[in-house]
Design goal:
Structural class: mainly alpha
Number of domains: 1
Largest sheet: none
Distance between the termini: 50 Å
Shape: elongated
Order of helices and strands: HHH
Helix content: over 70%
Length: about 70
């Protein structure tokens, strides 16, 4: 398989779903960078909307927003 073909196929695979939001502020920053944002970027780049992916993103975004309001 050509590298370009592999890259194109890999683009369609979702990254792992983000785990639960941690409580510790440093862990939250790491979670957002390593787990949430890769999934969100993948979801936003989909050519066809995926309801399940949007639900996952919405759930984690609301959890992060609630955490942010409670901690700052």
């Amino acid at each position: 398989m050509a590298p370009e073909d592999y890259t194109e196929l890999a683009r369609h695979l979702p990254p792992p779903e983000p785990g639960p939001l941690p409580i510790d502020p440093e862990a939250v920053l790491q979670w957002a960078t390593d787990e949430y944002l890769p999934y969100r970027i993948w979801q936003a780049a989909l050519e066809q909307p995926d309801e399940a992916a949007m639900t996952i993103v919405r759930h984690h975004a609301l959890a992060f927003g609630s955490w942010l309001l409670a901690n700052y």
